[in-house]
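Data card: per-record layout.
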Amino acid sequence: MSYAINGLIEINALDSLNLLSEEKKVVFNNLEVPIDCEIRREFLRNRDSFQQEYQDKELDILDQKFWAEPDQLSEKLVNFANKHALYENF
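The structure for this 90-residue chain is written out next.
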C-alpha cells in the first residue's frame, strides 16, 4: 500500500481516497501506478488522442469533486503534519 493511501486512511479522508482510486482507474486502468515520476509522465505522453480526450474529461469531473473538499482535506493535512512534526525544521 502506498504512503498516500495510508495517509488518507489515517486522517479518515475516505472520499478523497475514493476519488484517488477512481483517478487511478481512469489513467492506469488495472495497471500498477509506476513509482518513478518520469515513467508516469512517459506513460501519459504515449496516450492516443482519443484516450487522452476521454481521460481528460473524466479527470476534470473528478478534479472538481476533489476541490469541493468533501473531507475538509486541507484542515486534516495540517493536523497530520502537526501530529507527525513535519513542520519542525521549517
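Known properties of this structure: The helical segments are 3-10, 14-28, 37-45, 49-67, 73-83. The radius of gyration is 15 Å.

See the next section for split statistics.
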